[in-house]
Recover the amino acids of this structure.
């Protein structure tokens, strides 16, 4: 599979913009077979995701963002508007990377870890769906790795991000209404049912293995 | 929310002069200024929530508040008069992410008669 890096249709930012909009890992219609339309990807990426980048850069120019702080550092240390913007930029990039037009499915080290933690892959998917369906209001559901090298399924409001809890994120789903309203209206459950079939398990496994290494090297 | 809205043909968007319009002018300067402040505060709600015009029995005055998700403003000891839903489902199909535009337009169908009724009840 050759992922195509696609030029964003958003106006290019000036050189002094510290924060950038990462290109989508696939064309905008890549997820259509999986139930996420080109229309949704266009709004979600060009308006919401790009909007967060624009606003954080504007806040930066207005001197409201700590200099030399990376996106991750802002997520861990900042509060209020700066935290929201930084986290939403990160979260959306992560979300795009959590999906793929095709994946060989959950295999290898991540599959083993999921079985250890959740008994079976199906049990994990059921737990994931339950959290995502029942989360009230805007927010995200994350699969992360904690310092004890355990997989953690969590949900949180608005711009929540597990880096804040010193965990390493592996996979996320956006459950803000804008993520599914165009394709599914209020049927969040159907959106989630389709999302789990789009999970980019190769990327999740990569993140999992890197996270293990990262935690072990910090012991 | 549904009681707070009415078609233009049924008085939507029209605030008659009376106790409520006086209270709005006293507190905010004018109806237009009130709407400006309301819209700014409500547009700024993070994620899902509501903008509210409430009557506060303690201060004996009206004020603008915002609440997250579906948290009831009544639980804070104030009387809701007018609520505007800013969950994305309220505006996404027509306005996409343009929440400020949705807030600009909705005033055209605010059922001020209902808001006045609620204010009258609250201030009895």
């Amino acid at each position: 599979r050759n992922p195509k890096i696609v030029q964003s249709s958003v106006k290019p930012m000036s050189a002094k913009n510290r924060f950038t909009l990462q290109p989508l890992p696939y064309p905008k219609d890549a997820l259509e077979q999986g139930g996420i339309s080109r229309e949704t990807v266009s709004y979600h990426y060009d308006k919401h995701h790009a909007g967060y980048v624009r606003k954080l850069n504007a806040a930066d120019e207005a001197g409201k963002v700590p200099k030399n702080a990376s996106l991750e550092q802002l997520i861990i240390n900042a509060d209020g508007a700066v935290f929201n913007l930084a986290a939403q930029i990160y979260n959306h990039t992560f979300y795009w990377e959590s999906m793929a037009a095709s994946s060989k499915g959950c295999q290898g080290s991540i599959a083993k870890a999921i079985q250890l933690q959740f008994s079976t892959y199906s049990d994990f998917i059921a737990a994931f769906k339950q959290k995502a369906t029942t989360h009230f209001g805007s927010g995200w559901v994350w699969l992360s790795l904690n310092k004890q090298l355990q997989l953690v399924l969590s949900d949180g409001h608005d711009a929540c991000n597990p880096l804040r809890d010193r965990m390493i994120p592996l996979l996320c789903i956006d459950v803000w209404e804008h993520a599914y309203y165009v394709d599914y209206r209020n049927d969040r459950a159907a959106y989630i049912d389709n999302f789990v079939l789009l999970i980019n398990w190769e990327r999740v496994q990569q993140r999992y293995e890197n996270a293990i290494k990262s935690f072990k090297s910090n012991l | 929310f549904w009681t707070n809205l009415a078609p233009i043909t049924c008085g939507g968007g029209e605030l008659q002069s009376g106790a409520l319009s006086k209270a709005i002018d006293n507190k905010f300067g004018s109806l237009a200024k009130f709407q400006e402040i309301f819209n700014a505060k409500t547009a700024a709600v993070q994620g899902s929530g509501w903008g509210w015009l409430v009557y506060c029995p303690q201060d004996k005055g009206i004020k603008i508040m915002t609440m997250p998700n579906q948290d009831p403003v009544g639980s804070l000891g104030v009387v809701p008069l007018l609520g505007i839903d800013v969950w994305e489902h309220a505006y996404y199909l027509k306005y996409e992410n343009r929440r400020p535009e949705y807030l600009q337009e909705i005033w055209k169908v605010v059922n001020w008669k209902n808001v006045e009724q609620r204010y009258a009840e609250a201030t009895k």
Observations:
- Strands of chain B lie at 49-56, 61-68, 79-85.
- The longest helix of chain B spans residues 31-43.
- The two ends of chain B are 22 Å apart (CA to CA).
